[in-house]
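Batch manifest, entry 17 of 40.
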Amino acid sequence: MSKTPETNTATDAALEKELAELRKEYERLRDDKVRAEQNLDNITTQLQDLEQRAQADYGTADPAELEQLLVTKRAENTKLVQEYREHITTVRENLDAVERSLEDEASV
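Output type: structure tokens
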């Protein structure tokens, strides 16, 4: 038994439709690949720029060394803030003492 012309036409149409869908998918995948390659180029350029800046600003571009530098700087900042807080407290206490002294002199 051979297929009828109507069956062949339906099969051909189905194959043409599938082929058209496969072409669309191929085009989409090709476009995605081009975009991914462009993104990779952009990100690579950005990484190189950031590494150069880090090297110029901090003397290293190694992530582990930069992390350690950050930890050190945070500790230094914490210490400086604490020292400044203590200084402000001392200034405030001295100012309060001066104000009390002036009040005492005024009440005499």
